[in-house]
Automatic annotation (TrEMBL):
<dbReference type="Pfam" id="PF00696">
    <property type="entry name" value="AA_kinase"/>
</dbReference>
<dbReference type="InterPro" id="IPR001048">
    <property type="entry name" value="Asp/Glu/Uridylate_kinase"/>
</dbReference>
<feature type="binding site">
    <location>
        <position position="55"/>
    </location>
    <ligand>
        <name>UMP</name>
    </ligand>
</feature>
<dbReference type="InterPro" id="IPR011817">
    <property type="entry name" value="Uridylate_kinase"/>
</dbReference>
<dbReference type="GO" id="GO:0033862">
    <property type="term" value="F:UMP kinase activity"/>
</dbReference>
<keyword id="KW-0808">Transferase</keyword>
<feature type="binding site">
    <location>
        <position position="172"/>
    </location>
    <ligand>
        <name>ATP</name>
    </ligand>
</feature>
<feature type="binding site">
    <location>
        <begin position="136"/>
        <end position="143"/>
    </location>
    <ligand>
        <name>UMP</name>
    </ligand>
</feature>
<keyword id="KW-0665">Pyrimidine biosynthesis</keyword>
<feature type="binding site">
    <location>
        <position position="75"/>
    </location>
    <ligand>
        <name>UMP</name>
    </ligand>
</feature>
<dbReference type="InterPro" id="IPR036393">
    <property type="entry name" value="AceGlu_kinase-like_sf"/>
</dbReference>
<feature type="binding site">
    <location>
        <position position="169"/>
    </location>
    <ligand>
        <name>ATP</name>
    </ligand>
</feature>
<protein>
    <recommendedName>
        <fullName>Uridylate kinase</fullName>
        <ecNumber>2.7.4.22</ecNumber>
    </recommendedName>
</protein>
<feature type="binding site">
    <location>
        <begin position="13"/>
        <end position="16"/>
    </location>
    <ligand>
        <name>ATP</name>
    </ligand>
</feature>
<keyword id="KW-0418">Kinase</keyword>
<feature type="binding site">
    <location>
        <position position="163"/>
    </location>
    <ligand>
        <name>ATP</name>
    </ligand>
</feature>
<dbReference type="InterPro" id="IPR015963">
    <property type="entry name" value="Uridylate_kinase_bac"/>
</dbReference>
Length: 238
């Protein structure tokens, strides 16, 4: 017996780092498989899910600059990495019999579709998971900001940020096990307390569109469904 879903149409932001697991480079196939299973479970319960994928785990401008390149080159490589990561996640979803569509702001017609708001909404309503390659190519407009914009465009009930930890803490819980975990915060609290959730542009976009940001651990089995049913450990920023 499961509870009704509190948030039905959601956008989940996954960084490239979240897909790494404990890897030092690239993505961990076991982690991708586990995340795909989480998303599949939510879809089977009636959730409409979009996923924005980051690519910073593979290429960053700093690493490219160390090889004699420049930041622009690094960002372009990061955009390519988001597509690579997105295709991997979509493939894992299909293995769980969940239809997935990879959309991108970067036109690569042979491997992914160009994002349009109307197209994305239609796919989600049909039960497809939208996997959005989130690379923006703009160091001042992060994947978090892009995800918040997508959540607003698709009129999502919530913007979920899947992280390594199960919410927002007063300190790094890996360093201080006694750190306080916040259950609920306001956007103003996040900014004034300098809590490292996401960049201020993403916070402003979510706040202006009245979309709650929910931070939880994507690595905890069953976490995504438990969040959508309003149970488990997570922090709501609203």
């Amino acid at each position: 017996m499961t509870k009704p879903l509190r948030w039905r149409r959601v956008l989940l932001k996954l960084s490239g780092e979240a897909l790494m697991g404990s890897q030092s480079f690239g993505i961990d196939p076991a982690v991708v498989e586990r995340i795909a299973l989480e998303i599949a479970s939510a879809v089977k319960l009636g959730a409409q899910v979009g996923v924005v994928i980051g690519g910073g785990n593979i290429f960053r401008g700093v690493a490219v600059a160390a090889k004699g390149g420049n930041r622009v080159t690094g960002d372009h490589m990061g955009m390519l990495a988001t597509i690579m990561n997105s295709l991997t996640v979509a493939d894992a979803l299909r293995r769980h019999n969940i239809p997935a569509r990879v959309l991108s702001a970067v036109p690569v017609p042979s491997i992914c579709e160009t994002f349009t708001q109307r197209g994305a909404e239609r796919y989600m309503e049909d039960g497809d998971v939208i996997v959005f390659a989130g690379g923006t190519g703009n160091p001042f407009f992060t994947t978090d900001s892009g995800a918040a914009l997508r959540a607003a465009e698709m009129k999502c009930d919530a913007f979920l940020k899947g992280t390594q930890v199960n919410g927002i803490y007063s300190e790094d819980p890996k360093i201080n096990p006694d750190a306080e975990r916040y259950t609920e915060l306001s956007y103003e609290d996040v900014i004034t307390r300098n809590l490292k959730v996401m960049d201020t542009t993403a916070i402003a976009l979510a706040r202006d569109n009245k979309i709650p940001v929910i931070v939880f651990s994507i690595h905890t089995p069953g976490a995504l469904v438990s969040v959508l049913e309003e149970r488990g450990l997570y922090t709501v920023v609203s």
